[in-house]
Amino acid sequence: MNPDELRERHKAVLPEWISLYYERPMELVRGEGFKVWDSEGNEYLDFFGGIVTTISGHNVPEIVEAVREQAGKIFHSSTLYLIENQVKLAEKLVSLSPISGDQKVFFTVSGTEANEAALLFATTHRGSSEVLALRSSYHGRSFATMAITGQASWKPTARSPLDVSYVANPYQYRCKFCDGKCNLLCADDVQGVIETATTGHVAAFIAEPIQGVGGFIEAPPGYFERVKSILDEHGILFIADEVQTAFGRTGSHFWGIEAHGVEPDMITLAKGLGNGLSIGAVVGRTELIDSISGNLHVSTFGGNHLSTAGALANIEYILEHNLQQNADEIGGYLKDRLIKMSENNPAVAEVRGRGLMLGIEIVGPGGEPDPAAAVRFMQECRTRGVLVGKGGIKANAIRISPPLTITREAAEEAANVFEEALAIAGATEKVG
Ligand SMILES: Cc1ncc(COP(=O)(O)O)c(C=O)c1O
Question: What's the pTM value of the predicted model, to 2 decimals?
Answer without folding.
Answer: 0.97
